[in-house]
Amino acid sequence: MTISFARLDPTGTDRVDLVDFMARNEFPFHVRSRPTREQVEASIAEGAFRDDDNDSFWIEHDELGRIGFFRLEDLTDGAPLFDLRLDAPFRGRGLGQEILRAAADHVFGTMPEVNRFEGQTREDNIAMRKTFLRCGWVKEAHYRQGWPVDSGAPVASVAYGLLRQDWQSGQTTTFEWEDLAV
Ligand SMILES: CC(C)(COP(=O)(O)OP(=O)(O)OC[C@H]1O[C@@H](n2cnc3c(N)ncnc32)[C@H](O)[C@@H]1OP(=O)(O)O)[C@@H](O)C(=O)NCCC(=O)NCCS
Fold this sequence. Notes:
- This protein has 182 residues and is of the alpha+beta class.
- It has a single domain (3-169), classed as 3-Layer(aba) Sandwich (Aminopeptidase).
- The protein contains five helices and seven strands.
- The strands form two sheets. The chain has a four-stranded antiparallel beta sheet with strand order 1-2-3-4, covered by helices on one side.
- Helix 1 (15-24) crosses helix 2.
- The longest helix is centred in the middle third of the chain and has 16 residues, at 95-110.
- The N and C termini lie far apart (50 Å).
- Coenzyme A (COA) binds at residues 27, 29, 83-86, 91-97, 119, 121, 125-128, 130-131.
């Protein structure tokens, strides 16, 4: 299986497909789980898919074709975050791991100034959390009640990170979570 990223043009040739992708899928673990076409169009106009901080890509699979959407965020920070959304028919098939590995190759392979790659998800997004762990990412924060939920109580937001040195070596460096004795 080979994964590649095709940089998309959110205000030009990819606009229609991008609006369609976002509006026809459900994203149960995103703050906005059912974006409307109007909301996606407004986000495009605000530069949320491509500006200094953001860049977006279609995820292409060599046999399955276009399987999802990937965005790099906080690009001016030196430690980018990402947003990964598979098209519904391609979820639950183990594809996320290969994509996250390809994403790390893209970030560390094309951005020499980047030393850390970061990701954040809800505590109940088990598929994404397992994907992080299986790709050697380390849990670095657990923000209790940090993720607002429309229909109920807030859940925790969990942050993961991957270091360039770990990407290079294939070894996960960890740390002692509670390193201070009181
Ligand atoms: C999150 C996402 C990228 C994961 O990729 P994926 O290819 O669908 O994930 P996988 O199929 O490899 O699933 C990973 C594991 O989670 C498990 N899992 C999934 N949902 C689960 C649930 N509700 N409870 C328990 N385990 C669950 C799967 O069974 C699998 O474990 P297994 O291999 O031991 O069976 C993809 O599902 C997706 O795009 N979801 C919608 C958007 C999203 O939430 N993106 C994350 C934002 S950063």
